[in-house]
Amino acid sequence: MNELHGAGVALVTPFNSDESVDFEALGQLIDLQINEGMDYLVSLGTTGEVATLTNDERKRIWDFTVKRVNGRLPLVAGIGGNNTAEIVEQIKSFDPTGFCAILSVSPYYNKPTQEGIYQHYKAVSNASPLPVILYNVPGRTGSNITAQTTLRLANDFSNIVAIKEASGNFAQFSEILRDKPTGFLLISGDDPVTLPMMSLGAAGIISVIGNALPKKVATLAKLCAEGNYAEARSIHNELLDITDLCFIEGNPAGVKYILQELGIGKDQLRLPLVPVSEKIQAAIKEELKKLN
Question: Which residues are responsible for catalysis (predicted)?
């Protein structure tokens, strides 16, 4: 899965003022990522507010994204949730044309056991026509995919090819990297730890801040892949404060505000998410001045 090395971005879903999907802004966002050096795109990951989208909207966004990208970059589709049977049906009805993999978040809220997580991904693996990327984000799902479960899945199912890890647990990262089968990838799912994770052997990042600052994120990942950690550290440090500001009042509210400042779409979200406060807007503006 060479397509999954380097910098990927979990695309936001731009909305118009009436909360309809803003396809013009989505097209601008896709072109920005390609022109600024991103290595691949994730369409309708959790950052894309997929939980608030209808089945028809998801299909239209995927169709639009495939046509707009037009083979210029690899594409990953986000299909995940906490109802295994429903996710299996979504995968079966999904048109994989134009995509290289599926990113599937671990079941949230239900807090399944490790065996439940294993059986969930077994069903996803058996249904998927494409390679599968696991997504571990305990801060949002309420449960952790342990290193042992990740390794069990990686060894038992040849089409489970990677994990996007956002647990923040470096002991867990290290165990996965030490014991994983050849070719299985560890991908950072948390912007601020991309550099240290790649120094251990992670393949790259699926970024949120990359929506707004793709060139910096792509350059950071490239420098890390080359082992040039001195230069990478400079970009890492530059991005720390702006990344914190983007998440302090919920994702993707902060990054949508930055995109609005850049002239790409509006900082419009669907409830229960709301735009960032004026206080955070002012802080983001100040930080953008420093970066520019």
Answer: 135 (proton donor/acceptor), 164 (schiff-base intermediate with substrate)
